[in-house]
């Protein structure tokens, strides 16, 4: 039997793979997908973390991630708003296979270790992945779109 944590991990992985490959209805950014492990697709997704810099708004509310500065593989200078600033314990970026992965851990009142695990889709210029609400121990599928300057 699969544990709850393993089921959530597998579901998240499938959603992220689908999101990154951009499968599904091309006119609906939130719909995802199938897997294409073709080498050219992998190479196209190897992008600079600087592409992540900007303000990103979650599609289902006033939640905003502001990425100010990136490194090739490591810490990020990030702010998170709901709509007021929320303290961030950790924020980092890493390259995983064909995807740029962002991990953000929130530590504040109402955010006792809640986390975002997001993947960047260069094809859609979106962030997608999961939000773990530590207070209620539940995972949610989330998408962020780049805000206009």
Automatic annotation (TrEMBL):
<protein>
    <recommendedName>
        <fullName>Lipoprotein</fullName>
    </recommendedName>
</protein>
């Amino acid at each position: 039997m699969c544990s709850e944590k393993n089921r959530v991990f597998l579901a998240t992985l499938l959603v992220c793979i689908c999101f990154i490959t951009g499968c599904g209805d091309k006119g609906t950014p939130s719909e995802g997908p199938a897997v294409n492990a073709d080498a050219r697709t992998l190479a196209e997704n190897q992008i600079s973390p600087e592409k992540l810099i900007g303000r990103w708004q979650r599609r289902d509310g006033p939640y905003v991630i502001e990425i100010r500065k990136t490194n090739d593989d490591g810490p990020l200078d990030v702010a998170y708003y709901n709509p007021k600033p929320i303290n961030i314990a950790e924020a980092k970026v890493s390259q995983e296979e064909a995807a740029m992965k962002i991990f953000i851990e929130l530590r504040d009142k109402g955010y006792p270790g809640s986390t975002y695990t997001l993947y960047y889709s260069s094809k859609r210029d979106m962030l997608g992945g999961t939000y773990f609400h530590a207070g209620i121990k539940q995972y949610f599928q989330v998408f962020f779109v780049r805000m206009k300057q």
